[in-house]
UniProtKB/TrEMBL annotation:
Start and end residues of each Glycosyl hydrolase family 32 N-terminal domain: 31-337
Molecular function via GO: beta-fructofuranosidase activity
Protein name: Sucrose-6-phosphate hydrolase
InterPro entries (UniProt xref): ConA-like_dom_sf, GH32_Enzymes, Glyco_hydro_32, Glyco_hydro_32_AS, Glyco_hydro_32_C, Glyco_hydro_32_N, Glyco_hydro_beta-prop_sf, Suc6P_hydrolase
Annotated source species: Clostridium acetobutylicum (strain ATCC 824 / DSM 792 / JCM 1419 / IAM 19013 / LMG 5710 / NBRC 13948 / NRRL B-527 / VKM B-1787 / 2291 / W)
Length: 490
């Protein structure tokens, strides 16, 4: 099969199930999702020639067959996205079992992709290759004959060696790869190149073989290395981390360390590992720099090996997060909703300084299943306060976000979302009690993203309430809060 035939096969399946997929109430309003089938990691984020590209891991044939290719979205404004034909098809000997994750760079006006070719040999064993593809029109990609540019893993590592993230530094190309050491420790390695074709390893950057990070599991996926406020940030997804109280409660984790990279030696001195998101579904984010100097992040609202969703019956699974801008504050990466998202706002409703005292209150005009909501709670003496979204008393449904002022914990609870009835339905983290809590919420049909205190913490999760669960209730217990809210439908 050639790539045109593959693209045809994808279009056929997209067309075949279009109606079934589109009729699903849980299709999102303003998040990127696959036309049909399975989506995972965002790949190849780039701004080039006045346009933004987002590629993604795409298996349109899910759940029947598995052929992982790169889906492709393009936009001029980061808001309206056009879905383009599949960019990379798994048709070569070096990527026959999947064009796995990778990144994009601008090489003299050409869009160049670097990705991992995943292969299963005759014994079912994995082989791993780092490969290039390039395009002059940003739509059609060619894989050069010199592929693969890195054959197999480097000595000392297993075949779990993937997800190249490439960037330019002082006129040289650099790349980080996610890896596993032979002693089954997670790791990231640094490579460099003058031409994107000939690569040499610089050194391992960091790994869970170091005693400080020995809790960080057996494999690190999807690393990103970028600077923010003169700090080097290494963002990655460790697998095999044990839960520690409120921390690391998901099957796999995503977090970062801040430090300083020596590009000559690969030495990386850094601080502690910090979790990036506190919710249930957040993984494999990718970062891009824009021409106006912003650092933007886009994540996958899903997790590997977690295929639980009512949408599977309608032949699609997973979506991406909203785009977020990263900033550094008090030695922490904070996340702000992309400012362009304001353009989606419709019909503002606002309330200022409403007192809520030991009661539950609905506010006229504040409800819905697709909205942006900004809340500021000010308080002196109160035990607990919060919001019930997608509230429906007849069906006993709600998505609960509250602050426990006594224990200084912010808590997200989806046990009554109508689907996730499992015991593990709560996530929380510490937020200092200083008399004020802000919650900035992006609700879509089947997801919620909550930014606490200007992005100091985020909770990102899929939720599956009924379509008539649309009320919003504000409440306080054991005292009063002063509440100001802005609400827009999206
Ligand atoms: C992360 C990941 C990557 C891999 C890709 C395959 O979710 O496992 O490490 O490249 O997904 O789809």
């Amino acid at each position: 099969m050639n790539s045109l035939e593959f693209i045809k096969k994808v279009s056929y399946i997209e067309e075949k199930y279009r109606d079934k997929v589109e009729k699903d109430y849980y299709r999102q309003n303003y998040h990127l999702m696959p036309k049909v089938g399975f989506m995972n990691d965002p790949n190849g984020l780039i701004e080039i020639n006045g346009e933004y590209h987002v590629f993604y891991q795409y298996n349109p044939f899910y759940p029947d067959e598995k052929h992982v290719c790169w889906g492709h979205f393009r936009s001029k404004d980061l808001i309206t996205w056009e879905c383009l034909p599949v960019a990379l098809s798994p048709l070569e000997w070096y990527d026959s079992h999947g064009c796995y994750s990778g990144s994009a760079v601008n090489k003299g006006g050409k869009l160049v992709l670097m990705y991992t070719g995943n292969v299963k040999d005759s014994k079912g064993e994995r082989e791993t290759y780092q490969c290039l593809a390039e395009s002059s029109d940003g739509v059609e990609f060619k894989k050069p004959y010199i592929n693969p540019v890195i054959k197999n893993q480097h000595e000392g590592y297993t075949r779990h060696f993937r997800d190249p993230k490439v960037w330019k530094h002082n006129d040289k190309w650099y790349m980080v790869l996610g890896a596993q050491r032979e002693e089954e420790k997670g790791s990231t390695v640094l490579y460099c190149s003058d031409d994107l074709q000939n690569w040499s390893i610089v050194h391992e950057i960091l790994g869970s073989n170091l005693s400080k990070f020995d809790f960080l599991g057996y494999m690190w996926e999807c690393p990103n290395l970028f600077t923010l406020d003169n700090k080097d940030v290494l963002l990655f997804c460790p697998q095999g981390v044990d839960k520690q109280g409120d921390l690391y409660n998901n099957i796999y984790q995503c977090g970062y360390v801040l430090g300083s990279l020596n590009y000559e030696t690969g030495e990386f001195s850094c601080g502690d590992f910090l979790e990036l998101d506190r919710g249930f579904e957040f993984y494999a984010p990718q970062v891009m720099k824009t021409s106006d100097g912003r650092t933007l992040l886009l994540g996958w609202m899903g997790l590997p090996d977690r295929e639980v969703s009512p949408t599977i019956d309608n032949r699609w699974l997973h979506c991406l997060t909203i785009i977020r801008e990263l900033k550094m504050k008090d030695n922490k990466v904070v996340q702000k909703p992309l400012r362009e998202l304001k353009r989606l706002r419709k019909g503002k409703v606002e309330y200022k300084n409403k007192i809520i005292k030991d009661t539950e209150t609905k506010l006229d005009g504040i409800n819905g299943d697709s909205f942006e909501l900004k809340c500021k709670f000010e308080f002196d003496k109160v035990n607990q306060f919060g919001i019930k979204m997608r509230y429906n008393s007849h069906k006993d449904e709600e998505i609960l976000m509250f602050y426990d002022a006594i224990n200084e914990k912010i808590v997200f609870d989806r046990s009554k979302d109508g689907f996730h009835k499992e015991a593990d339905a709560e996530r929380k983290c510490f937020i200092k009690n200083n008399g004020k809590v802000k919650m900035h919420i992006f609700m879509d049909k089947s997801s919620v993203e909550i930014f606490i205190n200007d992005g100091e913490e985020t909770f990102t999760s899929r939720i599956y309430p009924s379509k008539d669960s649309k009320d919003i209730v504000f409440y306080s217990k054991g005292g009063e809060v002063r509440l100001s809210v802005d609400h827009w439908q999206i």
